Amino acid sequence: MTTVTGLLLALSWTGSCVSQHQHGHSHLEPRAAATDCSLYQVSGQSATPFENYRFLDFRSLSNYTASEPAEITTQQDSGEEAVTSPYFNSSTFEDVFQILSGVRNPDSNPPMIYSAQNAYISAAESADGSDTYLTVRTSRNKDFQSVAQMRSVESVLHASMRICMKVLEDSNDTVAAGAVVGFFTYKSDTQETDIEILTKRSHHQFQVTNQPSTTEPAGTSNVSLATGKNWTDWAEYRVDWLQGQTIWYIDDVLGYQTTNSVPTEASALMLNLWSNGGSFSGNMSVGAQVRIAVQYIEMVYNTTDDATSGGTATRCNVDGVETKGEPQVVQTSAAVVTTCIASSTFFFGLVVPLLYVLIDL
Ligand SMILES: *[C@@H]1O[C@H](CO)[C@@H](O)[C@H](O)[C@H]1NC(C)=O
Ligand SMILES: *[C@@H]1O[C@H](CO)[C@@H](O)[C@H](O)[C@H]1NC(C)=O
Ligand SMILES: *[C@@H]1O[C@H](CO)[C@@H](O)[C@H](O)[C@H]1NC(C)=O
Ligand SMILES: *[C@@H]1O[C@H](CO)[C@@H](O)[C@H](O)[C@H]1NC(C)=O
Ligand SMILES: *[C@@H]1O[C@H](CO)[C@@H](O)[C@H](O)[C@H]1NC(C)=O
Ligand SMILES: *[C@@H]1O[C@H](CO)[C@@H](O)[C@H](O)[C@H]1NC(C)=O
Ligand SMILES: *[C@@H]1O[C@H](CO)[C@@H](O)[C@H](O)[C@H]1NC(C)=O
């Protein structure tokens, strides 16, 4: 009796393996969890995948919202204010980014002072289903510019980094001139690749640059958003920093690519909002403030520690997935054959000896 059941079980196992071959590789595929991903493939021109993935989602942090923190006063000229929400102390955030605070950059006029009070989680219910976003701001005081900067904890060597953001209009439906929004990689002034929104310029364009932009031939350009769209609308800005090439996208559309002055050294990934009174940014008027809203930051990257594991890698797609921020295992027919062979081996290796044991009984 036991023997017969065992035999039937074994036969049905074989049957399912065969039917898997016959039905191709759609619904019968074994699904690996995305948490098993060890290589991340991005859309576009990167021929090889990356080894690390981070998705910082600021869209549903309702339990971390705070009312808008007070503007930095003239007395608060050391930048030592605390973070505005326990979110910035949570490992979700802290393992990825540090918010700069207590730093004074005296070299500009006005000097820039970095304060963590310029980053906070705002309640902002939106038609797209999101409840919150990250707000980052800069404001001009009489004697200094209060600024904000987030820097990645890890050093990155090549990356595809994306940010979904918009510049917020003030109560007069305008944006004060003189601020720069930077989303960039930084090691030094000659190892840097930038996405920059300048609020004094056209609201329809942003600038992309491999530094230094002064070397010839330069790797820099202005990129336009889609017709009718401005950076006061939600948009996804992306730069792919690859070996020997940088490629910028706006809302998945290629904006500019270059092989000039591409950084070669491991760098930090940064987000900042600043103004130093120089000719590039311009000057903000005393009392003026510029804010941006960020829905998410997505980072796909390698570090200098990465080395091909040699073992079996689970390759995942970052783009064109069902849910943004949830990479999906790449399904190939090769994987199905392998799995089927693997289960046959399992069958002959384990179930068959088991049958003999049962028959002996
Ligand atoms: C907010 O909610 C998340 C889970 O949804 C939880 O992990 C976290 O501890 C909560 N934080 C606070 C401050 O309540
Ligand atoms: C964040 O952590 C710092 C240092 O541990 C602490 O002083 C501060 O109170 C914390 N802030 C919040 C909002 O949890
Ligand atoms: C809006 O415009 C009014 C009138 O010009 C001005 O007094 C006020 O400061 C402006 N508000 C902002 C936030 O710029
Ligand atoms: C975009 O900004 C420009 C100013 O740079 C303005 O003239 C135009 O009306 C704006 N367009 C939209 C769709 O808001
Ligand atoms: C981008 O446009 C600004 C004017 O809005 C111009 O000053 C700057 O030189 C342009 N940059 C590039 C790289 O063409
Ligand atoms: C910006 O303002 C400061 C003083 O507030 C002034 O010294 C500096 O020259 C201004 N910069 C520009 C580019 O106008
Ligand atoms: C990332 O690192 C892996 C392992 O060293 C390598 O095979 C791959 O080519 C790298 N990807 C990029 C885009 O540089």
Automatic annotation (TrEMBL):
Note the SUPFAM superfamilies from the entry: Concanavalin A-like lectins/glucanases (SSF49899)
Which sequence ranges are marked TM in the entry?
334-359
Keyword flag Transmembrane: yes
- UniProt keyword terms in alphabetical order: Membrane, Signal, Transmembrane, Transmembrane helix
Every GH16 domain range: 67-308
- InterPro entries, per this entry? Beta-glucanase-like (IPR000757), ConA-like_dom_sf (IPR013320)
A Pfam family of the record is: Glyco_hydro_16
Instruction: From the UniProt annotation, give the residues forming the signal peptide.
Output: 1-19
Provide one Gene Ontology biological process annotation: carbohydrate metabolic process
PROSITE patterns documented for this protein: GH16_2
Please provide, alphabetically and separated by semicolons, the GO molecular function terms listed in this UniProt record: hydrolase activity, hydrolyzing O-glycosyl compounds
The protein's name: Concanavalin A-like lectin/glucanase domain-containing protein
